[in-house]
């Protein structure tokens, strides 16, 4: 049981005759402490509401009505041992786990010292590294899959304790791991949030993998103004989830802390014993409006609100203590007075807190510890020496081969790497492999072939067909120190993961002010030129992701770069979207021998594919070989010498290389496979126009796909995507401008 820590001291017990009696295992003293925390939570909400009205804080959302759930959960679980993914109503949970009211108020005032976010997040967006309370965000439900990944990480470290050891020379130096073999991950959410798809994806995986996760649904029957019967078919989530195997289920009155404590204790025992997850459905109340921006009188009549008031958990708990003779009225008053005094002090202190300074805003967008653009990642010379010493000329390999080999080598080197996604395993039915009945698949493009066989099914495995599931779980795992290298089968199907990719993965570090990080590598098969790939197997769209601060975006054009950049991605400390062009996987162009198990290419270092003096072409991915062909033809036919830059990484990108080249050639063409308008080239063109204006002898031009979709018939696909002839024409026109 947790020893709840607040900055409030316990008052004397009123009735000594009750001192020995326990309630579901809770002593009188613990019950008084429970009440103290519940009362503190409520009054802290009231204080914040007042501060908001006085415009001293900028937002308020209360935990009112949910206090009993939080206190009970914290008492049944272990702070700084178990892991917690709460949501905004969980003020009482966080107080009971050991967060002080002052710390909470620091977030409300947006102080630099706010331990959750340094003034970056709204109040009630909990995150306390010292207590294993993981940084929370505002999108409803994104925490649930992350909690699944967190639980999986705990299990992984328990069965691979060597993986928890600090490693040298990569992100592991900055990612300390702690775990316990019987730890639990607690995740809470509202009734409305059970409508999110990610909730169901999380339930599915928790059930299937028998994970030690406690789902705590705090059902106050409303999601802002939308009532539960509109959210949930039949109006009761317990009935809908009852069919999930391996769960311990309980549905109960969430305003009763003693009953809740008993339910969480049973859940904890079930989870710690490895039986599976638990689902606690707590019926609570919402005595205040959704937030201070909402007025519930617009959609809830007085009668309904008054009816609910009779179930207020704080009042109920107070009455319970008096009825049981645990506290008398004097004791209650004394306790409440103490709380008020301490809150007053906390408010006074918090209002004096120093706000963050604007010069800090870009801090922690990326890792402050590892810079993937640095020379530490430039190992090209090492490779050359190694090959020369060997004497033999190794056979050139495809990009697919080298990615596979790099993944294998990195997995061997770093036991924290796990790999999953759709079809990435060789064969989920392991017995077929053991009996040597089959060869195994290892990815629809075979990029992960053989890895499950080499490293085992707990390191390489199939996910359900659910992209948010893949990325959300990976985020949770990486937060715990694992290095998930996950695969999205086709870029065209990345969108179900978009909430995790846009609002979670790249924000974890920044929003927690470096309290947490989640350096996942997401490999994605992208692009067209497939002849028959059609719309949904050919799309690009990289600029959507380069638009996201905090996310590194890599797009190699050849085998050797793919190997070097992938290794940099894995060893660095930031989330990386690693885009692999399907057409390049097995292309003759760009094949290379394996450059060795330490070969890395730093980010933001463009490659001069061909030097030239007359025109700069800036490109990446599958346009590189096409542009090279066009450039060679142009030189043959017209003597025009194109300098061809392969950016290799799109965020960060190599501005210096672009700048140096354009200063020399005075002409720039940006070429990319994605649709023309609003694409990646727009940013590059704008930068050149802005910063190199006086060096230009011609307008900056772009060659890209037409603003439509990639069609099935090859003649249409050819017309839509940029071809050698299109590039040649554009180069020629620009050179002769
Ligand atoms: C993905 C997403 N959609 C919409 C919102 C806006 N929003 C914030 S809270 C909320 C209602 C949540 O209701 P519920 O899950 O029942 O939790 P409660 O607030 O009732 O505790 C909504 C719609 C959001 N934050 N995230
Ligand atoms: Mg609700």
How would you describe the overall organization of this protein?
- Helix 1 packs across helix 2 and helix 1 (28-53) packs across helix 3.
- Helix 9 (257-272) links the parallel strand 8 and strand 9.
- The protein is elongated and about 100 Å long.
- It is 39% helix and 13% strand.
- By secondary structure, it is an alpha/beta fold.
- The longest helix is centred in the first third of the chain and has 26 residues, at 28-53.
- The protein has a 7-stranded mixed β-sheet, with helices on both faces. Strands 3-4-5-9-8 form a 5-stranded parallel β-sheet, sandwiched between helices.
- The model is unreliable at 1-11 (pLDDT under 50).
- The chain has 26 helices and 21 strands.
- Magnesium ion (MG) binds next to strand 6.
In short:
This protein is 39% helix and 13% strand.
Contiguous low-pLDDT stretches (5 residues minimum) are 1-11
Give the percentage of residues in beta strands: 5-15%
State the end-to-end CA separation: 77 Å
Q: Portion of residues in helices?
A: 25-40%
Radius of gyration: 29 Å
Q: Report the average pLDDT across residues.
A: 95
Short descriptors:
737 residues, alpha/beta, seven-stranded mixed sheet, five-stranded parallel sheet, 26 helices, 21 strands, 13% strand, elongated, disordered N terminus, binds thiamine diphosphate, binds magnesium ion
List the helices and strands and how they pair.
Elements: E1 22-23, E2 26-27, H1 28-53, H2 67-76, E3 83-85, H3 91-97, H4 101-109, H5 142-159, E4 185-190, H6 197-209, E5 213-219, E6 222-223, E7 226-227, H7 228-231, H8 237-241, E8 248-253, H9 257-272, E9 278-283, H10 302-309, H11 313-323, H12 329-351, H13 380-390, H14 399-413, E10 417-421, H15 430-434, H16 451-455, E11 460-462, H17 467-479, E12 483-488, H18 498-504, H19 508-511, E13 521-526, H20 542-546, E14 552-554, H21 559-571, E15 576-581, E16 607-610, E17 615-619, H22 623-638, E18 642-646, E19 649-651, H23 655-665, E20 668-675, H24 680-691, E21 701-705, H25 714-720, H26 724-735
Parallel strand pairs: 3-4, 4-5, 5-9, 8-9, 10-11, 10-12, 12-13, 13-15, 14-15, 17-18, 17-20, 20-21
Antiparallel strand pairs: 1-2, 6-7, 14-19, 16-18
The site of thiamine diphosphate (TPP) has 15 residues, from strand 4 and strand 6.
């Amino acid at each position: 049981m947790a020893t709840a820590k607040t900055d409030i001291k316990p008052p004397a017990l009123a009735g000594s005759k009750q001192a020995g009696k326990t309630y579901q295992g809770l002593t009188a003293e613990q019950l008084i402490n429970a009440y103290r925390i519940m009362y503190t939570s409520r009054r802290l909400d009231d204080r914040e509401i007042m501060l908001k009205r006085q415009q001293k804080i900028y937002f308020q959302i209360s935990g009112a009505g949910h206090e009993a759930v939080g206190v009970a959960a914290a008492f049944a679980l272990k702070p700084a041992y178990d892991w917690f993914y709460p949501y905004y109503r969980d003020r009482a949970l966080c107080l009971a786990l050991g967060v002080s009211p002052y710390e909470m108020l620091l977030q409300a005032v947006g102080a630099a010292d706010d331990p959750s976010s340094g003034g970056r997040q709204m109040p009630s967006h909990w995150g306390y590294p010292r207590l294993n309370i993981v940084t929370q965000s505002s999108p409803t439900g994104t925490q649930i899959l992350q909690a699944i990944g967190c639980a999986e990480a705990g299990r992984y470290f328990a069965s691979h304790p060597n993986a928890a050891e600090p490693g040298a020379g990569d992100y592991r130096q900055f990612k300390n791991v702690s775990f316990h073999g019987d730890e639990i991950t607690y995740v809470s959410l509202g009734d409305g949030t059970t409508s999110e798809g990610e909730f169901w994806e999380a339930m599915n995986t928790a059930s299937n993998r028998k994970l030690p996760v406690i789902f705590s649904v705090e059902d106050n029957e409303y999601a802002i103004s939308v009532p539960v019967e509109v959210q949930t078919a039949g109006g009761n989530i317990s009935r809908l989830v009852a069919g999930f195997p391996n769960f311990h289920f309980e549905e109960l009155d969430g305003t009763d802390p003693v009953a809740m404590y008993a339910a969480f204790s049973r859940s904890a025992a079930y989870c710690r014993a490895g039986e599976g997850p638990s689902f606690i459905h707590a019926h609570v109340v919402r005595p205040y409006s959704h937030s201070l921006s909402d007025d519930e009188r617009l959609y809830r009549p007085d009668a309904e609100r008054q009816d609910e008031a009779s179930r207020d958990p704080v009042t109920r708990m107070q009455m319970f203590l008096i009825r049981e003779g645990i506290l008398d009225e004097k004791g209650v008053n004394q306790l409440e007075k103490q709380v008020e005094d301490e809150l007053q002090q906390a408010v006074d202190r918090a209002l004096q807190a120093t706000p963050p300074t604007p010069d800090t805003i870009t801090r922690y967008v990326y890792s402050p510890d590892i810079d993937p653009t640095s020379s530490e990642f430039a190992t090209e010379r090492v490779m050359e020496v190694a090959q020369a010493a060997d004497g033999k000329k190794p056979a050139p390999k495809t990009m697919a081969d080298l990615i596979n080999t790099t993944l294998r080598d990195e997995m061997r080197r770093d036991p924290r790497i796990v790999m999953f996604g759709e079809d990435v395993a060789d064969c989920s039915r392991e017995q077929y492999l053991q009996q040597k009945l089959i060869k195994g698949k290892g990815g629809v493009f075979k990029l992960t072939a053989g890895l499950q066989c080499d490293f085992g099914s707990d390191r390489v495995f199939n996910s359900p067909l659910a992209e948010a599931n893949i990325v959300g779980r990976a985020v949770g795992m990486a937060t715990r120190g694992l290095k998930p290298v996950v695969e999205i089968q086709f870029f065209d199907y990345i969108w179900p993961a978009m909430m995790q990719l846009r609002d979670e993965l790249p924000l974890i570090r920044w929003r927690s002010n470096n309290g947490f990080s989640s350096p996942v590598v997401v490999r994605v098969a992208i692009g067209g030129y497939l002849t028959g790939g059609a719309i949904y197997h050919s799309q690009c769209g990289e600029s959507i992701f380069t638009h996201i601060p905090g996310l590194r975006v890599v797009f190699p054009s050849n085998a050797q770069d793919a190997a070097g950049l992938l290794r940099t991605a894995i060893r660095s400390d930031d989330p990386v979207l690693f885009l692999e062009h399907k057409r390049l996987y097995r292309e003759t162009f760009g094949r290379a021998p394996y450059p060795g198990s330490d070969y890395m290419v730093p980010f933001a270092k463009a490659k001069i594919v061909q030097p030239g003096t007359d025109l700069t072409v800036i490109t990446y991915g599958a346009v590189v070989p096409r542009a090279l062909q066009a450039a060679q033809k142009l030189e043959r036919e017209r003597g025009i010498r194109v300098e061809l830059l392969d950016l290799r990484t799109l965020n960060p990108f190599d501005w210096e290389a672009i700048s140096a080249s354009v200063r020399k050639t005075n002409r720039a063409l940006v070429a990319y496979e994605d649709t023309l308008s609003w694409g990646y080239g727009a940013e590059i063109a704008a930068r050149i126009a802005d910063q190199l204006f006086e060096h230009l002898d011609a307008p900056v031009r772009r060659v890209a796909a037409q603003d439509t979709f990639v069609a099935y018939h090859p003649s249409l696909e050819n017309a839509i995507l940029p071809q050698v002839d299109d590039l040649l024409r554009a180069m020629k026109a620009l050179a002769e401008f």
